[in-house]
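Input record, target 12 of the design panel.
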């Protein structure tokens, strides 16, 4: 009998609640193996199905409600915190915003099954002004589908799962140590990669106050909004004088970006890592006067600086 099975048989619902809560809280501890094992035990009559589903469902709802509340009270500061601890800081918020912009609250359901998005979706919903009943409805559906699907798969393939667990167990404690060690190495590598990217992107940023002063002084700037089309459709306001170009379009149209004046890039990620990455690529292509905007469009709004609606059909000049 493997360690996961022993834990579940000894402690039952408390272990399932803790594992799922920790995962939904944002720590890199996968709950799927535990849910699959719970399903296998349910199929074998060794674990109560209602207990397993109810405690894991409540774990999801409690963790998500906490993040939703923090997102509503602290807004993008919470998203910034999650970005700082994320293994993929350059795409953490942008991907989640794209899902929300494209699918609305249905994205909250889908985010449960996408690593990295499940933790970001509740605070993003909170900062977006979603009502509490509407959030609880969609998050409840997503949580039930999440825990239910893994539990059902574990029940359907319980025999095969037990065979795999038995094979791993036959290798002794060394196999478990190897699995844990490989998992630790993977997380360590991702954080090292993250640190290397952030260190490489430490270029001079321009603050929103500096940008506003430049605009007021009449400097000839190019300001590019790098948000996706889906995110811009949901929030069509741009910094005054800015043009919209997605990060993918920047790669294709970099020859249109002038080399003889300042180019300011911004996005909606709290840590502006995406715009810094694009700025670094442009710098390597010879656009030397390019700088990311510190804090992005959210910092601009916090200062109540002027914005304008997107002008359809605007071109680079």
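The sequence produced for target 12 reads:
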């Amino acid at each position: 009998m493997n360690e996961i099975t022993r834990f579940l048989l000894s402690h039952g619902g408390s272990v399932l609640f803790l594992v799922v809560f920790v995962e939904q809280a944002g720590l890199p501890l996968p709950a799927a193996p535990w849910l699959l094992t719970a399903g296998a035990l349910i199929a074998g009559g060794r674990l109560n199905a209602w207990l397993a589903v109810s405690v894991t469902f409540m774990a999801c709802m409690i963790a998500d409600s906490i993040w939703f509340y923090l997102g509503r009270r602290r807004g993008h500061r919470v998203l910034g915190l999650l970005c700082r601890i994320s293994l993929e800081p350059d795409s953490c918020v942008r991907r989640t915003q794209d899902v929300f912009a494209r699918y609305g609250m249905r994205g909250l359901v889908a985010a449960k099954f996408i690593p990295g998005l499940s933790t970001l979706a509740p605070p993003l919903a909170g900062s977006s002004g979603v009502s509490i009943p509407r959030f609880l409805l969609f998050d409840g559906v997503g949580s039930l589908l999440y825990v239910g699907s893994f539990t059902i798969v574990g029940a359907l393939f319980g025999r095969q799962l037990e065979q795999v667990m038995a094979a791993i167990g036959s290798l002794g404690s060394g196999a478990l140590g190897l699995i844990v060690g490989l998992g630790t190495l993977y997380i360590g590598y991702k954080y090292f990669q993250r640190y290397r990217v952030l260190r490489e992107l430490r270029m001079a940023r321009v603050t929103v106050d500096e940008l506003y002063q430049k605009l007021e002084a009449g400097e000839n700037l190019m300001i590019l909004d790098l948000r996706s089309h889906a995110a811009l459709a949901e929030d069509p306001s741009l910094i005054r004088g800015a043009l919209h170009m997605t990060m993918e379009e920047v790669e294709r149209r970099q020859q249109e970006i002038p080399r003889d004046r300042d180019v300011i890039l911004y996005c909606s990620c709290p840590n502006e890592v995406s715009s810094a990455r694009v700025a670094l690529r442009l710098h390597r292509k010879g656009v030397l006067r390019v700088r990311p905007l510190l804090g992005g469009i959210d910092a601009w709004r916090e200062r109540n600086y002027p914005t304008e609606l997107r002008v359809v059909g605007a071109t680079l000049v």
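The chain is about 65% helix and 5% strand.
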